[in-house]
Amino acid sequence: METDLSLDYTPERRAELEENVAEVLAEIKAASQDITPFKPARLVPISKIKPASDIKALYDAGHRHFGENYIQELADKAPVLPNDIKWHFVGALQSNKAKLAASIPNLHLLETLSSIKVADLLQKNLSAEQTLNVYIQVNTSGEDAKSGLPPLTSSSSPSDPLPELALHVIRNCDRLHLLGLMTIGSWDHSHEDMSKPNPDFSCLTETRDQLARILKDEGHESKDELELSMGMSADYAKAIKEGSSSVRVGTKIFGERPKKQ
After folding, report:
1. S-S: 139 plus which of 4, 148, 223, 234, CB 3.0-4.6 Å?
2. Transferase: is it a keyword of this entry (predicted)?
3. Can you give the pLDDT of all 261 residues of the chain as single tens digits?
């Protein structure tokens, strides 16, 4: 399926998108009320397989953070859209695509870092003027089909894969900035009783606390407030109540997507 790069949108489509975003932002605000200090989570509309015109419509309405799942789609869209968009890449990034990702000047945040190899390739291919924020992806559900590193427990050490990657980024990749952790929870946990804690969200929160402990023990005290990216269209309000700093919402804003050919 070719990416639709036209920036022309109808007033009706813009109104529809703005209404959808307004509803999501209201739910984010409501879910954030009990957070002290009050700080609504960041909304990242995920425009996977949707036309560039949808992004332009929301950009014209004042939104700046957007996310994509496919690196080639992001590489196609970014040059035709305004360069002050803060792009988030939320799909798996293979090592042979790291150079392409580094070539996107307004890539703001890679949410799926999970290997030292990719970190080193990004470090190599980013220009001296670029700093790329990164989340480390954690496989909180333990599903084979999902990417990410194993979560942490109170017995975890600096030699475990996640702290090893975090420390490598901090010590060896000055063009990368470790901003937080990200997870894609299981479908079952995201659609179960919303009154109960989501085990994937609890796991990521515990992993963040354990990683902060390890980093502090290793002399990196500034890493205590790592962000958490968890929650999508089905469960973002619950994710915020459980501590998410950033939510990734696609279908609820842009509508159902056709299957990628």
Report:
1. 148
2. no
3. 688 999 999 999 999 999 999 999 999 999 998 877 778 899 999 998 999 999 999 999 999 999 999 999 999 999 999 999 999 999 999 999 999 999 999 999 999 999 999 999 999 999 999 999 999 999 998 888 899 999 999 999 999 999 999 999 999 999 999 999 999 987 776 666 666 779 999 999 999 999 999 999 998 876 558 999 999 998 999 999 999 999 999 999 999 876 655
For the chain, domains (ranges, CATH) are 11-252 (3.20.20.10)
45 token code pair: 């509309």
- Per-residue b or e along 133-171, where b marks 16 or more CB atoms closer than 10 Å to that residue's CB: bbbbbbbbbeeeebebbebbeeebeeebbbbebbbbbbe
Rounded CA-CA distance 28/236 in Å is: 8
